[in-house]
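Tokenised fold entry reproduced for everyone:
>
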Amino acid sequence: MINFIITPDYVEAFLGTCEGLSFICTSLIALRFIILFLSIANFIFCFWTGLDSAENLSILFLAVLHFSLNFYMISHYYYSRSIKCLPLGWRETYKQYFSIFLPFEFKKMLSFAEIVKHSNKSPLELVKKDSEFEYLSFVIDGGASITLENGKEVASLKKGDWISEFSFITGDKTSANVISKDIYAISWSKSKLQKIKDRKPELFEKLNSLIAKNLCYKLVRSNKK
């Protein structure tokens, strides 16, 4: 009969083997959790065997370092995917219209955008007919009017609608004028949209999907009139 006694050498070898095998894991967040638990195990191991050797002090230092770094990265991972990472003023807009993005992705989209605020009797020209595509805008509050050359209103835009989305998708010139006396909107310039496409193609694809969905909604809304 073999008597197996758990000794510090066996425990150290076991923890080292687990740490080596952990790198087989393909999920980064899962790997961070494994390293977190191994850091706690190494921390306990050091106090169990004593801190009278340089080797144990080194293991303890690395355990504290690995625990701190991975705890921070895990916290950041979940915080960035929580709506709490967004400023209070943007949370409702995100929940209603931009939930196709993860919260941190929407925050990134905002970093590329400009905010348009206008409240005046004199109308603000947002889009000029037969001009090249310059801005893609989203109405957060207020509204806008789509007009022809004679100034006649042919359609209205309200909260939740996009402006210049047809030109953005097709690349064609604008087909009508868009003016507003009272609007609060997010706006992305053509150059900023190109940067999103180049640097964050996954966000650009989500933006296209969001606009396509809105276009379908507009078609249904116009057919009901």
Observations:
- The first helix runs from residue 8 to 22.
- The mean pLDDT is 88.
- Strands lie at 114-127, 135-147, 153-158, 162-163, 177-189.
- The radius of gyration is 28 Å.
